[in-house]
């Protein structure tokens, strides 16, 4: 099975290799005369406002952390929803308790102002 | 070569264990060698995910029950909680020390 | 199903009341006005007390809950009592800790997290499922990471919490990997199931050894055993004193409880006949107690030797607590009910003496603003009561009569000699002698040295004196009248599901 694909892998490797070699050769042999107009964004592309390699605001981390916590709860909800019928009332009560505790946490971050961007 | 390819094309428990072993080693390596606290924490995530692969592989190939997969779900959540708290602590460290390199904190030592 | 759930909840009331207290304290911290924040500490205190009362009401039960996830048995009950006492004392301490009281705005979080940590420890001592065990350890750890960095403006505190989370998360990761291998070998997540699978047939010995070393790494970090102790001195020094005291007693107690239960339930060989009463054997070909014996020797020796060089009191007590973990590990090594009972007795004693020592350090730090050993010079004349109390705690920590520490050590060494572990007992005794040196060094500074700088008396408010006496008196009384404690401990070695 797998050895049937060997030619394809070889083909892919050869393709990448050829492309890379051509690019390097071009860069090495081709004449270079850069000017401001040539280096600017092509045609209707956006002019970059500033470098993309800058620090993110701390607020972003805050939102990311809260997102992780509240996103991951779905991992519990999904299997529960799938087997809802088998689990019945006991499962429902358990999940209600879980969601209630989660809501306490949500109320807490809300009142603390962690959800305000500014 | 042929034998190796034959072995590769029938994935079994061993394959998964090898992957998880590699992942575990990479995680430990990252923890031991990295200076940046975030990188150390990413190494720890690798260790947790290596354990996860083990759990799911054993659950699929050797025990035949869903126990391992349930554990894996819990481990994912545990890792998320740990990551959130670690990030908060690292942010706090950054505000106090202006660096996140673990070898630059040595106010507490013998 | 629902009836079963309600029946299970009946054995779970202490944990439920802690969980409710946690939620209420968290919300109260938002609602209550800033100048009324003491209200939250009262709330946390009441909640913990209620949990403690429920623990005592249901003390005689021995049953498994939530389809084998956790058990409520005498062994768990004993540790729950110790942990509840410890967290009540810590909540009282916190009222007088200047470090904690400075952060008025976040007081709700502080008490809520303390309660959550207590909940995590309650779950730890009862866990019989590997998943439950990991989750409980993690709940305890996550809250302690935050609390050790609670005074977040202080650089020491934040450094401590970063070091703690890196070591802690690594050990949890190693432990989980070990558990995944154990799960693969046995196909069970339940401790009893693991035991049955291991007893039924031999498994790959090397894989089992690797798994148990990785799992020991997780326990070792929790009880700060060498070589998993590196976080301990730094975290103990950097964290607020109240949290340090809590970690050194309650967290260690819960770690020991879960470790003893894990090793006893998973690796007991129930088919061996002809053992003396109260002894048990580990499964053939897997003598895990030898691993623990090495750990015990390393832990107490390193703890005591390094403590000799310490000048910061919190660091000194950190190494002393590492050494004490080593002593208590000796009780685990011997595989007998006497050994486990000795560990239980030691924890009850350790609760009072270690909390007392940390309380004295906290009071001195409040008054003098320093934890350095030099600032204790001449303290015996400036604060006679405080210094005398400290001497009592240190004598007890060193294990000399007529204090409670002596009783704790006596039962430990008796259990060791009873099980023919003479060499270990000798090393333990030598270590106790070394420990005397650094305790006496502090005492000498307090009473035989002249004060540097100001020599004016240090006054203590009445409430603080009451708490101090509440810790000194048990330390002295348990050294003379220890019958009930020993009976309680002997009755508490019974674990659910084991003969």
Proportion in β-strands of chain B: under 5%
Uncertain runs of chain A are none
Cα(first) to Cα(last) distance of chain A is 58 Å
Which structural class do you get from the secondary structure elements of chain B? Answer: mainly alpha
Number of helices, where a helix is a run of at least 4 consecutive DSSP H or I residues of chain A = 4
C-alpha geometry of chain A:
flat
Largest interface: B-C, 44 and 44 residues
In the CATH hierarchy, what is the architecture of chain B at level 2? Orthogonal Bundle
Q: Which percent band covers the strand fraction of chain A?
A: under 5%
In terms of structural class, how would the helical and strand content of chain A be classed? Answer: mainly alpha
> How is the biggest beta sheet of chain B arranged?
none
Q: Which features does this protein show?
A:
heterotrimer; B: 110 residues; mainly alpha; Helix Hairpins; 0% strand; C: 499 residues; two-stranded antiparallel sheet
Overview of this structure, please?
The complex is a heterotrimer of chains A (118), B (110) and C (499). Chain A has 118 residues and is mostly helical. In chain A, 69% of the residues lie in helices and 0% in strands. Chain A has helices at residues 6-29, 36-39, 58-82, 84-112. Chain B has one domain: Helix Hairpins (Orthogonal Bundle), CATH 1.10.287.3510. Chain B contains four helices and no strands. The longest helix of chain B is centred in the C-terminal third of the chain and has 31 residues, at 67-97. Chain C has 499 residues and is mainly alpha-helical. In chain C, a hairpin with a 4-residue loop joins strand 1 (63-65) and strand 2 (70-72). In chain C, helix 2 (13-31) packs antiparallel against helix 6 (107-126). Classes of the chains: A mainly alpha (118), B mainly alpha (110), C mainly alpha (499). The A-C interface holds A 87-91, 93-94, 101, 104-105, 107-108, 111-112 and C 1-2, 4-5, 19, 23, 26-27, 30.
